[in-house]
Amino acid sequence: MPDSVLLLTLIVLPFVASIGAGLLPTGARDTASALAGAVALIGLGMVWAAYPAISEGTVLRAEFAWMPSLGLNFVLRMDGFAWLFCGLITGIGALVVLYARYYMSSEDPVPRFFAFLLAFMGAMTGVVISGNLIQLAFFWELTSLFSFLLIGYWHHLAAARDGARMALTITATGGLSLFAGILVLGHIVGSYDLDAVLAAGDRIREHALYLPALLLIVLGALTKSAQFPFHFWLPHAMAAPTPVSAYLHSATLVKAGVFLLARLWPAMAGTDAWTWTVGLAGLITMLIGAYIAIFQNDLKGLLAYSTISHLGLITLLLGLKSELALVAAIFHIINHAAFKCSLFMAAGIIDHETGTRDIRRLSGLNQSMPFTARLAMVAAAAMAGVPLLNGFLSKEMFFAEALSAEAPVSTLLNILPIAAMTASAFSVAYSLRFIHGAFFGPEATDLPRKPHEPATWMRFPVEILVLTCIVVGVLPAATVGPFLSLAVHSVLGNHVPYYSLAVWHGFNLPLLMSVVAMVAGILLYLLLQRRLRSDVEGPPVIWRLEGQRIFERVMVFVSWRLARRLEAVLGTRRLQPQLRLLVGIAILAGATAAWWRGFGPGNLPPSPVDPVLLLIWVVGGACSLGAAWLAKFHRLAALILVGGAGLVVCITFVWFSAPDLALTQLTVEVVTTVLLLLGLRWLPKRVQLPGERGPEVLSRTRRLRDLALATGAGLGMAALAYATMTRTPPDLLARHFLARAYTEGGGTNVVNVILVDFRGFDTLGEIFVVAAVALTTYALLRRFRPAQDSVEIPEQQRDQAATDANEAGRAEPGRVADWLLVPFTLTRLLFPVMLIVAMYLLLRGHDLPGGGFSAGMVVAIAIILQYMIGGTEWTEDRLRLRPQLWVGAGLLLAAGTGLAAWLFGRPFMTSYFAYGELPIIGKVPMASALIFDIGVFALVVGATLLMLVALAHQSVRAHRAAPRRAATEAGDD
Amino acid sequence: MELVLSLGIGVLAGSGVWLLLRPRTFQVIIGLALLSYAVNLFIFSTGGLRSGSPAILEPGEVGTIAEYADPLPQALVLTAIVIGFATTALLLVVLLAARGLTGTDHVDGRERER
C-alpha cells in the first residue's frame, strides 16, 4: 500500500466514521460500537501494515499542497515514535470501544458518544503523525475540543459541565500558547516542517528567541499533560464516562504533552532552561500528584492523581539532560498506558456493578468478583512497581537515571534520588489503598447494587492489558524491545545510548532503592489507616493548594467582574454618544493627517465655473440644508428635499460624463423615496405646537456641539474633496481597464464591463448582499408588530372612506380608479412601455449606458407604480409576483455563469464574448457577461420588489379588520 | 467648478452628520442618505472632473485616459449606490420593527431621561 494512502486512511477514516456514527439513530448502540471498533481495528491493521517499512528505519511521508503560497504543506509523517503512538491510539482505542459497548447504558445516546470518541481518535492520530508544526497545533486543539465534548457527554450533570469547561479552558489556552511558540520556532528555523525543525537543533538553542519559544511550547505541553500548576483539570475531567477516562485521560490525550516534549527533544532539550522548566515541573507534579492520590476517596480520583504523578515522572525524565532518561520516558509512556488504562477499566467495572466508587464504602469485593479483583491487583502492582511487571522495569530505569543524571545545580542532584524514592513509596501506598480498600476486608452490605462479575466481554480488554503488563514485565526484551528501540532510534537518530531491558541487573543501588520505597510505602499505608478511614476529604498540609479554587476565582473575575467594570467605565447603550465619538475621531484623524503632512490645493488649475451647474448646486445645497432642518417635524417635506438633492447629484453625474451612474442614481432615487414613503406610515406623529417653548439649555448646548461637529465634518469633506479634485488623478487602473474593455471584455461601456467582467466577482458578492438584505427585511416584516398608535387607519383614508360611503354610485373595489382616473389609466398604459425600456437598457448595457442594475430598477418601478395607483389587491389579482423566485433565479444565473467557466477549464468567472447576427435586430453582443448581467437584473427586480411589497403589505395586513370597523362607524353617523 | 462641487459635498456631508446625531430614527435615515450622496460624489470626483469626455468606447478601440472619462470610480460608485439602497431599506425596516417593539422612535429604543 502506498504511504500516502495508508497515512491518509489512518487520519481520515476516524473522522468519516465519526460523522457516520453521529447520523445513526439514538438507540443504535450496537451499530455504533461495531463501527467504532471496526475503525479502530482497521487503524491497528494499518499500523501493523506499516511495521515492515518502519522497522527498517524508513520514515513514511505523504505531502499534499495546503497553502503553497505560504510555503505550508499538509504533511503526514510516520517514524518509529509516531508509529508507536499510533499503535497505542488504535490498539487501546479498540479495547476501549469494546469496553464502552458494555459500559454505556442503552438509555444514553451512545452513537453520539462514539462519534466524539472516533473524532478524538482521528485528532490524536493527527497530532502524532503531523509532519508540519502548524498542522500539529491544529490537531492539538481538536483533541482539546473533543476531550471537552467527551467530558461533558453527560451534560445533564453539573460536574460534567464544569469539568469539561475547565479542561477546555486550560488545555485550549495551552494550545494557543503552543501555537504561539510554534510560530516563534518556525521563525527561528524558517520552516514549519518537522524534519527541518529537528535538524536545526543547534541553531534553535543558540537563537535569541529560544527562551520565549521554549516557555510557550512547554506551557502548551504542561497544560495538556496536567502538570503542576495546571494539574487540577484532570481530576475534574473524571466526570466523563469511564471509557473516556481510560482512553483520553490515561493512555492518549494527556500523553500528547509528553509526546510533544519527546518529539522536540532533539531540537530543544539539553539546555539549563529546558531542565529548569520541564524537569522542575515534572518533579513537583510527581510528588504532589502521588501525595494527593493517597488521600482520594474516589477510585477514579485516586487514579487521576496517580496519572498526574506518573506523567510528572515522564516529564521529569524528559527534562533531564540524558539520552537514557529519554529511553526511560518512552518506555514508561507505554507501560503507564497499559496498567493505568486497565485500572480505569477495573474502576469502571466496580462502579458499574456496585453503583459507587467510594473506597470507604467499598469492601470485600474479592468474594463477589474474584476475576476482576485478580486483574486489578496485578495492574495495581504494576503501578506500584512490583518486580516481574512492566512498571518495575521503567521505575528501575528511572532510579538509575535519578542517580546519574546531570543537573544545572548539584542540590537538585541530591534531591532527585530522594524524590524518586518518595514518589515511589507514595505510589506503593495508594496502590495498596486501591486494592485493599476495594477488594479486601469484610464484604460490604450497604452497596447501591449487589456486586457480581461483569459481562465476559467487558472484562476482556482488562485481561488483554493486564496480560501485556505481565508479559512485558517478564520478557521485556522479547516483547516490547523492538518497538521501543524503533521509537528511541527515531527520536535520537544515531545517538542512542546502550540500555538493557533485562529483568535482573544484579544487586545494585536502584534495586535497593526499590526495596526501601516498597517497604516505606507499606509502612506509610499502615500508619495512615486512621486518617484514611475518617471522613476528612483531601490530603493533610497542602489541602489549601486548590488550583481549582484559583481557577474559579480567575474565571469569575475575568468573565464577570472585569467585564462588567469595563462596560460600566467605557460602554454606553446610547447610540448618539457613540456616533459623536465616531465622527469626532474621524474629524480628528483627518485633521491630524493634514496638520502633519501639510495640506493645500493641488497642481491642476481650477476649471471655469459654469453658472448653470452653480445654480443647480445652490438648489442642491438648499435642499440638503432644508432636509436637515425639517426632518424632525415635517418628514414628508424632508423626504422631498432629499429627493431634490438626489436629483442634483444625478445631474452632476451626467455633467461630468458618467451616464451610467446618473441612470442608476435616478432609478434608485425613485425606489428609495417610495420605500421611505411606505415607512412614514409607521412612525409616530410629531407635531410642533405653535406655542411650544424652545429647547432647554442642556438640549441647546447639545445641539451646538452637534452643529460644531457637523460643520467640522462638512468643512473637512469639502477641503478634502477640493484637494483631491485639484490633483492629477492616478490613472494606472483606468488605463488598464480602458485599454482592455473592448479588446478583452468585448464591450464598449467600460463601466459595465468592469462590473460584469473584470470585477465580476465583486459584483457577485454585492448581489449576494442585496439578496441577503431583501430576505432579512422580508423576515423582519413577517413578524412586524406596529406600535399601538399607528394601527388605526390614517385620517386621509378615513375621510375618503366616509365620502365614498356617503356618495351614491361608488363601488368599493373600483375606488382608486374612480378618484385617480387619469394616473390610473396612464400607469396601466405605461407598464409595457417601461418593461420594454428596461429590456432595452439590459441588452445594450455592455455597449451603451444601462445594464442589469438600472434595468432591474426600472422593472421594479414599473410594478411599484401599479401598486401605488391600483392598490395592492387590484395589482395582485392581475400580476402574480414571486420575488423570492426572482432572487433565487438571479443568484443561480449569476453564480452559474461564473461556474460555467470551470467547464471550459478556466478560472471562476472567466467570461466569453462574441458578436452574433440576429434577424431583424441585427448584430448583438453575445458575451457570457450578458447572462451574468441578466442574473444581476433578475436579482435586483426580485430583491427590490420583495422589500417594497413586504413593506406595502403591512398596511393591508394590519387593517384587515379595520375597514369594516370604519364602515360601521361611518354608517352610524 | 471644483470649488462649487467640493462645497456641495461639504454641505451634503455636514447636513448628513447633523442628522446622524439627532435622536429620531427618521432623521438618521435621512442623514445617512445625504451622507451617502456626499461620499459617492467624493469617490466619483477622485477620477477628475471632466465634462464632455465620452464614456463609451468606439467598437474595436483601445481607449486612453486622455480622451475618456475614468471608468473605475464610476464602477465603484455604481456599486455603492445599489448597496446604499439595500442598507437603507434594511435600516428602515429594523427601525420600524424597533419602533413597533419599544413604542418609541428614539434611536436608543427609549426616550431620554430628563
TrEMBL record, chain A:
Domain NADH:quinone oxidoreductase/Mrp antiporter transmembrane: 130-413
Keyword Transmembrane annotated: yes
UniProt keyword DNA repair, yes or no: no
UniProt keyword terms in alphabetical order: Antiport, Cell membrane, Ion transport, Membrane, Transmembrane, Transmembrane helix, Transport
TM ranges: 6-24, 31-51, 80-101, 113-131, 137-154, 166-189, 209-234, 246-267, 273-295, 302-320, 326-350, 371-392, 412-432, 464-487, 507-528, 581-599, 611-631, 638-656, 662-683, 704-725, 763-781, 819-842, 848-865, 885-904, 924-951
Major localization listed first in the record, in broad terms: membrane
Species for this entry: Neoroseomonas terrae
Top-level taxon in the UniProt lineage: Bacteria
Membrane topology note: Multi-pass membrane protein
Protein name: Monovalent cation/H+ antiporter subunit A
Subcellular location(s) of the protein: Cell membrane; Membrane
Domain named MrpA C-terminal/MbhE: residues: 702-798
Domain MrpA C-terminal/MbhD span(s) in chain numbering: 622-685
Residues of the Na+/H+ antiporter MnhB subunit-related protein domain: 825-945
Residue ranges of every copy of the NADH-Ubiquinone oxidoreductase (complex I) chain 5 N-terminal domain listed in the record: 67-114
Automatic annotation (TrEMBL), chain B:
Domain of life: Bacteria
Key words, A-Z: Cell membrane, Membrane, Transmembrane, Transmembrane helix
Entry-linked Pfam families: Oxidored_q2
Membrane topology: Multi-pass membrane protein
Biological source species: Neoroseomonas terrae
InterPro entries for the chain: CPA3_antiporter_subunitC, NUOK/Mnh_C1-like
Membrane-crossing segments per the record: 6-21, 28-49, 75-98
Similarity annotation: Belongs to the CPA3 antiporters (TC 2.A.63) subunit C family.
Subcellular location as annotated: Cell membrane
Protein name as it appears in the record: Na+/H+ antiporter subunit C
Keyword Transmembrane: yes
Lineage: Bacteria, Pseudomonadati, Pseudomonadota, Alphaproteobacteria, Acetobacterales
